[in-house]
Amino acid sequence: MSSKESRKRSNRRSHKKPKYSTSTSSITDEGSNGSSSSDDYKHYKFRKGEYIKEYKVRRHISDGTFGRVLKVRRKNSKSYAMKIVRSNHADSAQQEADILFYLKKKELNRYFVEIIESFYHRGYYCMVFERLGPSLYDLLRMNQNRGIPMNLIRCISRQLLKYIGILHNLKLTHTDLKPENILFSRIRYLQKGQNEMYLPQDHRIKIIDLGGAVFDDEDHNCIINTRQYRAPEVQLQCCKWDQKSDVWGIACIMVEMYTGHLLFQTRKNEFEHMALVEKITEQNFPYWMANNVKGSLKHFFNTKNVTNGKYYFWLQGSSSKESQLKVKNQQTLKEMILDPLLRDLLQKMLEIDPNKRISCQEALNHKFFSN
What we know:
Residues 1-39 are annotated as: Disordered. It comes from Paramecium sonneborni. This protein is an alpha+beta fold. Helix content is 30%, strand content 16%. The protein has a six-stranded antiparallel beta sheet, with helices on one face. A two-stranded antiparallel sheet has the order 7-12. Strands 8-11 form a two-stranded antiparallel ribbon. It starts with a helix and ends in a 7-residue tail after the last helix.
């Protein structure tokens, strides 16, 4: 199936450019029986107990920028999650539906959220999904950002690399990998001595939110990903990004599972972000990237006056003292990751130069996964 046949995104971390999202991470048994959104008037007006096609509305789960999620039940069947998309985002929603049906046809719904069907109801585009449990982000938050056990990091990372590697083999890039888009089935509560920890009852994960997925032969937007998981080549706009940008995002998630905190703790400051990239990875941007930077960052790269192989000079009027101190005190990857095998794998996945960054399959062959 070609890209032409398949195609007709809680801002906890902000995108530069909004995209359509069909996040089902909040589809649990918790929710409200009615609407609670501040811009409720923009969403589909539902009544508890009404039927949308053959689905009976049980309760309201959540509202997002792009639509409203309801818990529904088909007669004599199980419960589902129904996303009712706001009318001005219907085209984008159909694009994701096309990709999810494509993956389902290839029997890949074991790895990616399963779409049951899609249809129009009173002018609104509706997508019916299987119901899934909490997200990896929820797990980290429930454990008070202390990180999770190494065996679970290894299990989740292996699945992530395998599933996204399958997308890459299909010439697709996910473009928005983050803990919010990695879901479990259920989470159980465990107590070990005096330490309380939440762990998933089933370690199997599913990937959601393919609203921004892009085929190799399609147009590539200038900026993708949530900033903290955005690869440097994307931020610098120095080349056409590809699947290696997903690998960078997965590495950021792996560090977050280990430490419990974002690897790149920066929000809107792109200058600080790129400085943190150099500091954490202990690498300098290569000449070819520095020489092809576009956008506002271009003025802070100098390929003529090189100092110890360094081309990025972000301190020239682009940073506050607070920002400078933040970068100065930032730990490196070597200081953060004590496990030698995990650290070696992450260093290979966090190569600044995408041409040197390993692929998902190469990462799966690393000794970290044979331990």
